[in-house]
Amino acid sequence: MDLIPSSEMKNRIPGTTDGFWAQRRYRGDGPTFIKLGRKVFYRPEDVDAWIADNLHERTDRKAN
Fold first, then answer.
1. Which residue, 19, 20, 38, 40, is the most exposed by fewest CB within 10 angstroms?
2. pTM score
């Protein structure tokens, strides 16, 4: 199983920071994550699903 360390997420999703991903985890509105000890990881399929769920046709309407 390939896991993405949280520190690499800012490189995979342009315009984001470590703080952005920490806030998504805190608020519960980011991709599902795995916590092993103090380390946080993401599964690629969870990140892909989160991106797909956040597609919009317009600023006020999600894509179908």
1. 38
2. 0.85
CB 26 within 8 A of CB 35: no
Instruction: List C-alpha distances in Å: 11 to 16, 46, 56, 64.
Output: 8, 17, 22, 28
Backbone angles phi, psi at 61, to 5 degrees: -145, 125
* pLDDT for the residue 62: 79
Paired tokens of 14: 């342009």
**Both tokens assigned to 48:** 């892909």
How far apart (Å, rounded) are the C-alpha atoms in residues 48 and 39? 21
